[in-house]
């Protein structure tokens, strides 16, 4: 499988979104994909932020954006937070 299903929580919207992300892509590319999807899914309520970070939802551990999703150990059901 080349993609995994993750939950992305966006505190600015107080909402979570489920989406598929590619395993082999670097996280900085995935963040752009996630942001684009959230803009569309929120009907424009979310605005792209050039300083956005992505972290593990429960611990707040910030992910290294230069690693791939696979290298970060993300799996189906992983919970992320976009801050």
Task: Say what the CATH topology is.
Answer: Ubiquitin-like (UB roll)
Strand content: 25-35%
- What is the tally of helical segments? 1
Looking at the overall shape, the CATH architecture is Roll
The strand count comes to 4
Domain unit count: 1
Radius of gyration, taken over Cα atoms and rounded to an integer in Å: 12 Å
Overall helicity: 10-25%
Strand order of the largest sheet: 2-1-4-3
* Structural classification: alpha+beta
CATH superfamily: Phosphatidylinositol 3-kinase Catalytic Subunit, Chain A, domain 1
* Succession of helices and strands: EEHEE
Strand count, sense and barrel status of the largest sheet are: 4 strands, mixed
**Mean pLDDT across all residues, rounded?**
96
CATH class membership: Alpha Beta
- Low-confidence segments, ≥5 residues, pLDDT <50? none
**Overall 3D form:** globular
What separation lies between the terminal Cα atoms? 28 Å
List keywords for this structure.
single chain; 4 strands; Ubiquitin-like (UB roll); four-stranded mixed beta sheet
Give a concise summary.
With 83 residues, this protein is of the alpha+beta class. It is 18% helix and 28% strand.
Describe the overall structure.
With 83 residues, the protein is of the alpha+beta class. It has one domain: Ubiquitin-like (UB roll) (Roll), CATH 3.10.20. Helix content is 18%, strand content 28%. The chain contains one helix and four strands, in the order E-E-H-E-E. It has a four-stranded mixed sheet with strand order 2-1-4-3, covered by helices on one side. The chain is globular. The mean pLDDT is 96.
């Amino acid at each position: 499988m080349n993609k995994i299903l993750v939950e992305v929580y966006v505190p600015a919207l107080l909402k979570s979104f489920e989406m598929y992300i590619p395993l082999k892509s670097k996280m900085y590319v995935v963040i752009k994909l996630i942001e684009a999807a959230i803009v569309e899914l929120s009907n424009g309520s979310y605005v792209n932020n050039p300083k956005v970070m992505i972290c593990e939802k429960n611990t707040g551990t910030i992910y290294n954006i230069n690693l791939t999703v696979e290298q970060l150990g993300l799996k189906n059901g992983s919970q992320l937070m976009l801050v």
